[in-house]
Design a protein that fits this description.
The complex is a heterotrimer of chains A (106), B (410) and C (368). Chain A is mainly beta and 106 residues long. Chain A is built from 1 helix and 10 strands; from the N terminus they run ββββαββββββ. Helices cover 7% and strands 32% of the residues of chain A. Chain A is globular, with a radius of gyration of 14 Å. In chain C, helix 1 runs parallel beside helix 2 and helix 3 packs parallel to helix 4. By secondary structure, chain C is α/β, with parallel strands linked by helices. In chain C, strands 1, 2, 3, 4, 5, 6 and 19 form a 7-stranded mixed β-sheet that branches. The two termini of chain C are 39 Å apart. The chains are: A mainly beta (106), B alpha/beta (410), C alpha/beta (368). Chains in contact: A-B, A-C, B-C. Chains A and C meet through helix 1 and strand 6 of A and strand 8 and helix 3 of C.
């Protein structure tokens, strides 16, 4: 959920509106924000499932250190969504285990 | 007056894959075993290698002993398969095959010659793959640097920490005592007979002492010529299944850079450390910035799609080479009760069988496999060992740089 | 990826948070050529999520909000010619002072005459059944989301831990529109300042002393938590368990230094649980046991932004002196002033233990 007006910080200043897709669904994002921000704004809680026991995981530290928030971004697995900026038309998928890298890692 | 603090049938010095193997096989034969490890289990080469299982790495230095080597490494694989039936700890032994990649036409020619010799000496598995077939087996290789390869399907990798722990655990169950953080100051020999070992707290008496300290072996026993060699390795983040083949890149017909994917999905990468004699400390476990950058640069050239991948840790370790590329396994000539098992550059292919052979010699006085070729005293009185040029990093790097930046294969 | 030397600088500072920036500014004021490296895309460390007013004296910027201090530091850094390189990951700090660095393009080396490690800290986690469920996150993480990113991860919250982080973040979550149902504290007293505790209590949050989370429940994310009373041996009192409906759990159980680079470079450590665990030791001038490498801020023990800033200043001044940019007399005066300010910050019931801990750390430095 977005905080549009905060008692101390005032109105949130957003960059240009972008469209990204999350598991095929279109989600609004703003230029200059991290992927995780747009995902939390859209109400997403589950970012990935673990390899062995297939357990759901989401944000934990939000400063790029714990790697719990990784997702598959534009075909690349293990991307830390809390420290990666959104880009227009980014394709984001819930990562299952280690994901799938086809034909090398490009 | 130094105290005698214990007595054993056999004291094993060194707690890597080789030492723990000896502990297990001897304990199985009913011997009272004490293993003394100066740091922790698998803290030497065992815990720092790529875990590759190479039946016959067929380098110039020892290709003529292919048949001898295969006798051992094939037996080793059978013993590991036996382990897998009953051992409590699984050590992730996977026979996924191994590639030796040639990065120039000259290297291809060398490779083909080596393959011929290997085949003639009984290795019926080794195959030559041309560029196209190589890239099919391992598609993330840089096509510009792939000219051809040598492929051995029954090679593979395992988890070396778990192998040592697994053997150690089974040894303990059979009554062996494992003492970590226990450095052996020296092996006590009086009147050409072993009496035991001296550790900080005193003496452990024993009828037999096994020197399984690999890189450190020559420090403990004079004359066995185990040459410590320092290598740099690193591990990546976990990656989804890419071709899992362990891979080694040739340079002058010798190993240059290697990579292998572990069962958990991390890629282990490694390369030669700095130029060795005479200035470097072979036991220096410090990592130096420019070494890391060099290894990363070349790995990035070999696997261009890996440039994006995060390296999570790097480390340095000391292995043990010998002048003829064969390990030293056998009783030390001139001393009663001293058994040597050291000088392993590919220890995971030998650890299991070396322990069995040691237990056979100590318990029965004879072994099921011939050990004369690996007599630990074979270098006594020989010419001083000089480094082949392939192990000099500067030469290796210059050669590789030239090849890589000259454009490589088409 | 070619390697080679990316750049040479007199002083390399690792971390552009309050400690790093202050070290950089002090050194730059004295004519040192300074480059600061930070792996994030924005500088300021944890300052920018601090939207509350700081305490202390006027010279400690009392009454100023964290993010305002952050902006002031950035302005000063610019004014004194400090180069700040963002999106630069320092992956290695070697005993010979070489720095392994990774940017957008390649992996390379930075050479510096002196280094300051100011890499800060990371939140601890707490294990209980269900602790990995999504929307159970660090309190600092929730704080980042609401104060920096302006998004609210949940509306009905339970916070674990009543230290200042737990209290302040709970208050800030309520400012952002969430309801903090309870703060769960294992000890028999509130850990943080009473003024913060009073604020959250006034807003309706229950502070449950002698309690702990026994489990978290939910299918794909947290939906309920069970909280139970604990006895003096930290065992759960049977029958005291209560279920709460929540959609967000904030864990505020302390921080520990991000000290990997310190280990790697060969620094000596001591174990001080009251400061966050394994702490790299330093002397009176924030110098570590590795010649040429200084440390400052939370990486040297968990305290506050104000102490981080003063420690950074001490390091910056000491380095200016070591590089011969200021004479010993001037250096000593500046150092004593900074050390006195540090002393003031460590007065009182919340500072005494930190003062004692820092004395321990300095004594340990000299013992190696």
């Amino acid at each position: 959920m977005r905080i549009d007006n905060h008692p101390i910080l005032g109105e949130s200043k957003k960059g240009r509106e972008l469209k990204i897709s999350v598991d095929g669904k279109e989600v609004i994002a703003y230029e200059g924000e991290m992927i995780a921000t747009a995902l939390v704004a859209s109400g997403l809680k589950v970012f990935r499932y673990t390899s062995k026991y297939k357990e759901p995981r989401g944000l934990f530290c939000a400063i790029g250190r714990c790697t719990d928030c990784v997702m598959e971004v534009n075909g690349r697995s293990n991307v830390r969504t809390c420290v990666t900026l959104v880009e227009d038309r980014m394709v984001i998928k819930t990562q299952k285990g280690l994901g799938e890298w086809k034909e090398g890692l490009n | 007056m130094v105290k005698v603090i214990g007595k054993a049938d056999v004291v094993i010095v060194g707690g890597g894959a080789v030492g723990t193997s000896a502990a297990y096989h001897l304990a199985k034969r009913g011997k009272k075993v004490v293993l003394c490890e100066m740091r922790n289990i698998a803290s030497g080469a065992t815990g720092r290698c790529g875990g590759m299982v190479v039946h016959c790495y067929g380098r110039d230095v020892n290709i003529d002993k292919t048949d001898y080597r295969l006798m051992y490494t094939r037996a080793n694989t059978e013993i590991m398969k036996e382990y897998q039936k009953t051992f409590e700890i699984d050590f992730e032994f996977r026979q996924v095959g191994l590639l030796d990649v040639a990065i120039s036409d000259e290297e291809v020619e060398q490779l083909k010659k080596l393959i011929e010799i290997q085949r003639s000496l009984g290795d019926n598995e080794i195959e030559y793959l041309d560029k196209k077939d190589t890239l099919e087996v391992m598609y993330n290789l840089n096509p510009k640097l792939t000219f051809g390869s040598r492929w051995r399907p029954s090679d593979g990798n395992l988890n070396p920490f778990l192998l040592a722990r697994s053997q150690g655990r089974e040894a303990q169950k059979l009554g062996a005592k494992i003492m970590t953080n226990t450095k052996v100051d020296n092996i006590i020999i009086k009147n050409d007979k072993v009496e035991g070992v001296k550790i900080k707290d005193g003496i452990i008496e024993a009828d037999w002492v096994i020197n399984a300290t690999n890189g450190w072996a020559s420090q403990l026993t004079e004359g066995i010529e185990v040459i410590p060699v320092r290598e740099l390795a690193m591990v990546t983040e976990r990656l989804p299944n890419l071709p899992p083949q362990p891979f080694e890149m040739l340079c002058f017909g010798e190993f240059a850079y290697g990579a292998t994917q572990t069962a958990s999905g991390n890629y282990n990468l490694g390369g030669p450390g700095p130029a060795r004699p005479p200035k470097w400390d072979y036991f220096d476990e410090t990592i130096y910035a420019d070494e890391v950058i060099k290894v990363l640069t070349y790995i990035g050239e070999i696997f261009p799609s890996m440039r994006d991948v995060a390296i999570i840790r790097s480390w340095v370790g000391t292995m043990g080479f010998t002048p003829d590329g064969m390990p030293s396994i056998g009783p030390m000539p001139g001393v009663k009760g001293l058994f040597i098992t050291a000088g392993y550059a590919d220890g995971m292919s030998w650890a299991a069988v070396s322990g069995k052979v040691a237990s056979e010699y100590i318990c029965d006085g004879k072994t099921s496999l011939p050990i004369e070729t690996m007599n630990p005293g074979r270098f006594i009185g020989k010419e001083k060992f000089t480094w082949p040029q392939c192990y000099d990093l500067t030469v290796c790097h210059d050669y590789l740089t030239e090849l890589i930046y000259k454009g490589g294969a088409n | 990826m070619e390697g080679g030397v990316k750049l040479k600088t007199e002083l390399a500072v690792i971390g552009a948070g309050p400690a790093g920036l202050c070290a950089a500014i002090e050194a730059a004021k004295n004519g040192v050529d300074v480059t600061v490296f930070d792996e994030n895309k924005k500088p300021g460390g944890q300052l920018f999520k601090q939207i509350h007013r700081f305490f202390g004296s006027e010279e400690h910027l009392a009454g100023t909000r964290g993010f305002e201090i952050g902006n002031m530091l950035l302005d000063d850094a610019k004014k004194y010619g400090v180069k700040v390189m963002l999106d630069n990951v320092v992956w290695g700090l070697f005993p010979d002072l070489k720095i392994g660095i990774s940017d957008e393009e390649k992996v390379s080396i930075v050479e510096a005459q002196k280094v300051v490690v100011a890499t800060g800290a990371i939140e601890n986690s707490l294990s209980f059944p269900g602790w990995t469920l999504p929307n159970i996150m660090g309190a600092g993480a929730a704080q980042t989301m609401i104060n920096v990113n302006m998004v609210l991860p949940g509306k009905r919250v339970i916070t674990v831990g009543s230290g200042n982080v737990g209290l302040i973040v709970s208050y800030q979550l309520m400012q952002a529109g969430a309801e903090v149902v309870a703060i769960v504290e294992a000890l028999d007293h509130v850990g943080g300042y009473m003024v913060h505790a009073a604020k959250v209590a006034r807003m309706g949050t229950k502070i449950l002393l002698n309690h702990t989370i026994t489990k978290a429940l939910g299918d794909k994310f947290v939906e309920k938590v069970e909280v139970g009373k604990i006895d003096k041996d930290f065992n759960v009192v049977k029958g005291s368990e209560q279920l709460y409906d929540v959609d967000l759990v904030c864990i505020a159980v302390g921080l520990r230094p991000l000290s990997e680079l310190c280990w790697m470079s060969g620094m000596k450590f001591d174990y001080l649980p009251e400061m966050g665990g394994f702490i790299p030791v330093h002397d009176n001038n924030m110098k570590s046991n590795v010649p040429g490498i200084y440390i400052a801020g939370d990486v040297t023990g968990i305290e506050e932004a104000s102490t981080a800033m003063e420690e950074g200043k001490v390091a910056g001044i000491a380095i200016s002196q070591a590089l011969g940019k200021i004479d010993n007399k001037k250096g000593l005066i500046l150092l004593n002033e900074a050390r006195e300010r540090l002393g003031t910050l460590r007065l009182g019931p919340f500072g005494d233990f930190r003062h004692a801990a820092k004395e321990k750390i300095i004594r340990k430095y000299y013992s190696y």
